[in-house]
Amino acid sequence: MCNPIEGQVLMLTAAKASVPGERLPNLLERAQAALAPECERYRREYERVHADDNREAFLVEWGHWETLGDDLELSERELSALRRAHEEQLLRIGRRTDREAEFETALEIREPVCIATSAGDER
Fold first, then answer.
1. Torsion angle, CA of 67/7/84/95, rounded to 10 degrees?
2. Closest residue by Cα to residue 72 from 12, 27, 8, 21
3. What does the domain layout of the chain look like in residue ranges?
4. 22-60: per-residue pLDDT in tens?
5. For residue 61, what is the DSSP state?
6. Residue ranges of E strands in 6-123
7. Using one digit for the tens of pLDDT, what is the confidence trace for 61-90?
8. What is the pTM for the complete model shown?
């Protein structure tokens, strides 16, 4: 399965997360499996702030991850790790595209969702 989170971001998130690092890839795959079929809906309903060959990034309302976490039956720690991975990925994109300050400001009021769009695997 595709993963919208780059390997370096995955390692950083695993180091900071309150879940074992070896569980994070599985959590990301579960989230991707839930998000990918909804990509068209995200495009219609949310602001897409980035798109490239590997992923699309959206800004969604606060509480979005809690709803997704409930749907996936995630613990608070698992949910926190997923949210952090998507935040770190968006900030990494921001650093690359000279939009980091813009994304940091946006994250004060919204949450990011990154969805893999290619057949390649970033891990």
1. -120
2. 27
3. 7-116
4. 888 999 999 999 999 999 999 999 999 999 999 999 999
5. E
6. 47-51, 55-61, 110-116
7. 999 999 999 999 999 999 999 999 999 999
8. 0.91
